[in-house]
Amino acid sequence: MTTLDVKKLTSCGSDWEANQYTLLSRVKVWMDQIRKNKLFPSLDESIQLSTSLEEILRENLESKWWFDSEIRASRLNERIIVYEKAHQVGFQLDMLLEFVEWALYLNRPVLEEGEILRSFVDENLSIRKIANRKNYLGKGYFTLPDNKKEMLNIYYYEVNWDWHKNEVIHTMETELTRSVPFEAIQGSFEEFVKDFINNYQQLYDPVAFIFETDLDFSYEETMLPITERKLLEEIKVY
């Protein structure tokens, strides 16, 4: 599915009715996915839309204030064409603000239901760290069960640091290294992970995180993305 072009949707002189239809269709898709417990990328796209619309609203409210106070409130003694152009600009600005406010209102339930689902999964996802000492956390492993398929997945992760506007930005790259059926694991998941770390990987004495949950929601669209974000937040605490 293509990404929403917010700039195009909010360009002055565009077809506002067609833009409403486009946005209604996309919001319906997002809501349908979330109600199927498929959180991403719908929630991220909804958040990005809201952020962009709020920025557009702030910028154009300032323009509207200036226009109303400096243009509409002043006496126009120039040619009639000046007044007509000012009227056209004011009309388009009003249409834009009306559309943006409508779009924000339309998108709000997606944000609310998405956050409810995200919080529920986060609360039902526990994390434990396995390490002999205070290991380096920038690289390591984590496990996450796929309860629907009854598989334990082991991932390699690597944290990257970057600077943006004088702030440290953390991102994480992950790679699936091994998938094991539950029935093939003898003993506990923790014992299995310790054996994997000691015998079947190349990092020196790496840290590992075990995630546990009873949920069987959509794995790729919900469980794994929330797990990765939860792990990144956990690592930033240390």
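Above is the first protein from milestone M3; the second protein from the same milestone is given next.
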Amino acid sequence: MELSRIVEALLFASQEPLTVTDIARAIQSTVREAKEEIKAAKEAGKENVPELDEEKAALESVKDEDVRAALDALAEHYEKDERSFTIVERSAGWRLCALGTFGEWCRALYPGKKPQRLSGPALETLAIVAYRQPITKSAIEAVRGVSVDAMVQQLLDRNLLKIEGRADLPGRPLLYCTTDLFLDHFGIRTLDDLPNAAELRRVKLPTPEDVAVANDNAGTEAGAVGEEETKVSKGKAAADDTPELLLAGE
């Protein structure tokens, strides 16, 4: 029996995504159990016990790379035959999925479930966390310039964000990270698959302390400008008060 067909059957039967290792172990354990059954039957004195065929016996030593090659072969086969489904790899593993072009037909099976869209502010908040995680709420607010309490809570409720411990900062603020559901929602396998992830992570974002310093500097500069304007206006007023005779004598 072809390895690719076994892999396909396992993916079809599983309700959860399967990793390459999960698939390899399932195949190995099946072969071992078959060998043990044959051995037990012989020891029990049963006659005409069928031997395990060589092709199946060889699968006991199947490796992760063999399974991955079978997955790639299946995906290529589905694409070549223009099937309505394919194999996709997500953060939790591999699974069979219908192509997006058939989404409207598949949604007809679940009329009560409507796709929930994220608002612009929620997407902005989620993007900041995705690229800079783990990150504190105050750091998110420093980037967005507004309070994000409601947005963070909404994303936590929808299981797109999770709490990942506390920062080693005064007050021990909570740290936030994205979840596996976030990866599945946006169709990516790992955070490294985010657009320009490496470049964006190298960009230094302003911290709450940076924002506070910038505001203080802006206030100081504004005060200096105000004082200078006051001096100029006073000087102008003094010149205007000068008698016309003296001015004409210059």
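Note on the second protein: Confidence is low (pLDDT under 50) at residues 224-250.
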